Amino acid sequence: MNVSCPNCSTTYRVDPAKVPEAGVRARCAVCSAVFSVRRDAAAPAAPAATPVADRQPAADTIAAAPAPVEAAASSATLEGVTVLGDVRQAMFRTPRETITVAEGAQLGERRATRIGAEGVELRGPDGRLQVIGIGGRVPID
Q1: For the chain, what is the radius of gyration of the CA atoms?
Q2: The pLDDT value given to residue 68
Q3: CA-CA distance, 58 to 67, in Å (whole number)?
Q4: Where are the extended beta strands (E) located within the chain?
Q5: Are 80 and 123 found together in one domain?
Q6: What's the chain's average pLDDT?
Q7: Residues 67 and 135 in one domain
Q8: How many CB atoms are located within 10 Å of the residue 17 CB?
Q9: Are 38 and 73 in the same domain?
């Protein structure tokens, strides 16, 4: 089924079998708006939703396949990076949630110092830099 962000109209393709009967809240990877997703009445029940961007809002957007559900809860997988003018965001996914991080924001103990088309540069608590590419994992303890 297709779900659209009510704020910016970005369309996401969602497997209705992964949306719980009660619905789920999703965060738009483009504008960061949070909205409710409810499955169609004909779809079978399942534990979680996995929205995947149906279109790219700009040429500088990179999207990757959803992270495996078996991933440890203490790590996040970089699924995509959006660079629209001065707005730079990265979307990380854990088995329980999707986390949108802006440049300069914290992700666990690390700070996103730079977000670009090649990935996210994170500075750890020890001051060391780590570059995470699309599909890469980072601990979020």
Answers
A1: 15
A2: 44
A3: 22
A4: 2-4, 11-13, 24-27, 34-37, 52-53, 62-63, 75-84, 87-93, 98-102, 106-107, 110-116, 119-123, 129-132, 137-139
A5: yes
A6: 77
A7: yes
A8: 14
A9: no
Across 120-129, b (16+ Cβ under 10 Å) vs e yields bbbeeeeeee
Q: What is the CATH number of the domain that holds 106?
A: 2.30.30.830
Of 58, 69, 72, 70, nearest to 29 by C-alpha is 58
Parallel, antiparallel, or unpaired for β 75-84 and 137-139? antiparallel
CA 101, 105, 110, 113 dihedral sign is positive
Give burial (CB, 10 Å; 0-12/13-18/19+) of 32.
middle
pLDDT digits 0-9 by tens, 49-99? 444 444 444 444 444 444 444 444 578 899 999 888 788 899 999 888 888
Same domain, 48 and 76: no
Number of domains within the chain: 2
Q: Which residue(s) pair with 120 in the sheet?
A: 115, 132
Domain residue limits at 116: 62-139
